[in-house]
Sequence to fold (316 residues):
Amino acid sequence: MVRAMASRPSIRVADYWSWLPVFRVVAETQHLPTAATSLNISASAISRSVKLLEESFGHELFDRRGRNIYLNKKGELLLSSVRDAMRTVDESYVAIRNEAYLRQLSIAANSALTRVVLIPVIDSVLANNPTLNVGCQTLRGQDTAERLLQGEFDIALSLIPYRHDQLGCELAGSLPSNLYCGKSHPLYAAEGPHSLSDLTDYEFVGPPRDKNGNAADGWPPHLKRKIRVTTDMMEMGLSYCKTGRYLAVLPKLIAEPEVATGSLKRINTEDIASFSLYIVYRHNPIAPAVKLFVDALRQHFRQTLATDLPEQVIAS
Fold:
């Protein structure tokens, strides 16, 4: 029997408040044993809490198929609200414990991008905002959108766009790129120019392909090449290229310092499409610190690359 919900909001929320942390872990794992391990309680206790929560709402929040559970539309709506509420409460907790940490900003980015893009922007933002504190981490894996929604970080700098109704995704700018090789590669001493179509027999290190089969490094999709090493970590791609075993398409901002030392050679060939750099964040609303960083990043690209950037959010 579904219980009638209390009329006053404070009483109504109190009726199911204690079950929300359990619901969030179950919703994010969609696997009772994994949730039980995470919360250090039995799977039967978790199942009972979820059932009580569903009775309180008067609707099922999961679809059950055999022994598997899947978050349904009503469950997705509640999960979004729970994440926002917990994030707000945690920010208040931090502010109360230590006023100096009133504004926090956590950023995830590819390690190579951190060196050439993130550090100067962070320095500029911190210089003008003494109460802001920034944390940085390396962006890895394909679960960027989910980790953003879970609140693991506030902003991601990504080479691919993400489309989700709870995320904003803007084109931050373009990173001009070129083809490079290391000292021991046969092309290091070869004279150019070279046609890209003549280089497809060489082995490459490159990023994973997207769902359309295209790589994020701007290599022409109609030219098939041999990617022997696939990595979404640009710093690793740079290191593999420096060994001389593989060619790599790299942003000039990252590769040219290595050209200056002789570790890499820029191969004389036709232009390759630029890397697109996207900034991804939670919205509705956009946190003030996030907006501040987005504005600073756009200004950085305008100043360093004279890039004419669109103002619109491309995915939201």
